[in-house]
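Please, structure for the following, as tokens.
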Amino acid sequence: MAQQDRAIRTRRSILEAAAKVFGERGYASATVEEILTRAGVTRGALYFHFSSKEEVALGVLEAQLPIDRLPERASKLQKLVDHGMVMAYRLQHDPLVQAGVSLALDQGAGELDRNAAFRAWSDQLGRILAEARGQGELLPHIDVSDTAEFLTGAFAGVQAMSQAHCNRTDLGRRVSILLRHVLPSISTPALLTALDLSQDRGERVFLECAADAPEAAAPVTQG
């Protein structure tokens, strides 16, 4: 068990070091040597976990994938809100998630499957929206797939704007504003007033996830 824990910590340290290198230099300019130096591990340790720089980058990309086990809500649209707000909180605090998003938007990382993270987000939002439709929470004309893709793209744009403006310190507020504009166009009117769209929603739900199932939430490693 101690050896397994050590391996997990080593893998995490490699990913965190790679996240910093990719964030500073971009995927194309980053080197395995820089990642090794930053992580303080041997080449053998890195290649025990990853076969190449590309595989390390894919590991960083996976860190931003959506949390699978958000707390269930009576309202599925509240669960949809929670997804976006938790991601906003993670983007503010977890360097691995930050680097994953940066890699997904990095035009110089063409050899990576950068679309995988977008597909994962769209697919998960699509499932939540389908549940919301099943409960009568959506307006009749709403296309679940189109709406999921729109929300994924809109979030990507909002977080990029927030990063450029203030290093994402206002991302919770910006995502809250985005949802306040979008939800009235897809939700049945009676449901809207019951949704919690407050800008600190992400932190509260993230901590709830961590308390209920620590392995379901990515560690927050910076304040």
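The mean pLDDT is 88. The CA atoms of residues 172 and 200 lie 7 Å apart.
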